Amino acid sequence: MSKKTASERTLILCVDRDDDIGVKAGVKTPILGREENIDAAVSLALRDPEEPDANAIFEAVRIYDHLRESAEKEREECQIATIAGSELGGIEADKELVSELTEVLKEFSAKDVILVTDGFADETVLPLI
Hints:
This protein is of the alpha/beta class. The protein has five helices and four strands, in the order βαβααβαβα. The protein has a four-stranded mixed beta sheet with strand order 2-3-1-4, with helices on both faces. The protein starts with 8 loop residues before the first strand and ends with a helix.
């Protein structure tokens, strides 16, 4: 396995295609940064403790923390972000996801992406990323 260079950047991307985070918790996306994502997940979990998207965000944070630990040794940069689509679904959700991903990539230009979702619409989200 080759060592990563300092220029390699990985984005841990959590995707909420139906915008439960916005609809249920009133949180505006995209959400960039570890603390911001934790705050958003807590807010969503407090409003709906059974919401899978809250767990997906927490999982993204767990992956981010693990990657940060190893990244320090390998000189790799990483960032965490959550993006959301639309409660309307379909093309509206897809357009919003692409728009928010573009916004995130302007802030943190990534070479690699680790995708985290609630599993509900993985096959729909993957081609967009």
